Amino acid sequence: MKPLLEINNAVKTIYNDNQDLNILDGINLKIYPKDFIVVLGTNGAGKSTLLDAITGANKLSSGDIKLNDEDITHKNLAKRSHYISRVYQDPKLGTSPRMTVAENLLLAKRRGLPRRLRLRKLNDNMEKFKELTKDLPTLDNRLNTFTENLSGGQRQTLSFLMAIIQRPELLLLDEHTAALDPQTSQELMELTNKVILEKELTCLMVTHNLTEAIKYGNRLIVLKKGKVILDLDKDQKAALKEQDLLEYF
Ligand SMILES: Nc1ncnc2c1ncn2[C@@H]1O[C@H](COP(=O)(O)OP(=O)(O)OP(=O)(O)O)[C@@H](O)[C@H]1O
């Protein structure tokens, strides 16, 4: 099978404390269609830097990134956002606070098209948005609520829906449930898993939660000091226990 995303020899060097430091230190990774990869690693291991390199938010010092065989290493963030979407840890990122839930969903649905919101377009899509949110206790009946008035959990659910409403080629989840209370976090994680499996999305999910890391996904990688030090396939991951993972931290 051909990889969807291929990262070859990715190095990111920063100048810190009077010396060069490789915060990504020769990462090689092939992500295949429908992979749901959990990414673990200690603080500072390079997880966010890796996601930034994939989205184009941060350029590599050397190495290359290919999506469907096309070299995207030098494509900017805006161009890559047509096919790569990301949900952040911070509920304030990713949604426009002065817009309603429905308006945010419409913007996400029209990603890549001119950023104009027409009332008619909003009305045309209202039924679809109702359908999308109807089984979600956090967002049901909230379509006309201004996003700034939503709770953190509601905003994260909205950010997630915005990330998948236009099927992304690659979905990046950057500790997207970490800032939520345990119950809300679990609900969003269940929704995430359901959508990824139903829509057969390809996903890279960063988490610090070992229970989540064991339960979800078909592959698991561990980053340490900018290197991939463990890459487990489906069967190896299925046999994994939390105790096994602790030794990498
Ligand atoms: N622009 C920068 N300037 C200096 N140091 C940086 C910069 N960006 C990242 N770093 C450092 O690079 C290392 C990797 O950071 P990164 O945020 O990718 O880690 P992480 O694995 O996502 O950590 P966390 O789990 O804490 O979010 C850290 O030591 C960080 O301090």
Topology (elements, then pairings):
Blueprint: E1 5-16, E2 19-31, E3 36-41, H1 47-55, E4 62-67, E5 70-71, H2 77-80, E6 84-87, H3 101-109, H4 119-133, H5 152-164, E7 170-174, H6 182-199, E8 203-206, H7 210-215, E9 219-224, E10 227-232, H8 234-238, H9 242-246
Helix pairs in contact: 3-4, 3-5, 5-6
The chain binds adenosine-5'-triphosphate (ATP).
Residues 14, 16, 23, 41, 43-49 line the site of adenosine-5'-triphosphate.
Protein name: Phosphonate-transporting ATPase
Domain ABC transporter: 5-249
GO cellular component, one term: plasma membrane
Q: Largest sheet, if any?
A: 6 strands, mixed
H/E element sequence: EEEHEEHEHHHEHEHEEHH
N-C termini distance:
32 Å
Q: Identify the bound ligands.
A: adenosine-5'-triphosphate
Morphology call: globular
CATH architecture of the largest domain: 3-Layer(aba) Sandwich
Q: DSSP strand (E) fraction? A: 25-35%
Rg (CA only): 18 Å
Short synopsis of the structure:
This protein has 249 residues and is of the alpha/beta class. It has helices spanning 47-55, 77-80, 101-109, 119-133, 152-164, 182-199, 210-215, 234-238, 242-246; strands spanning 5-16, 19-31, 36-41, 62-67, 70-71, 84-87, 170-174, 203-206, 219-224, 227-232. The strands form two sheets. Strands 6-7-8-3-9-10 form a six-stranded mixed β-sheet, with helices on both faces.
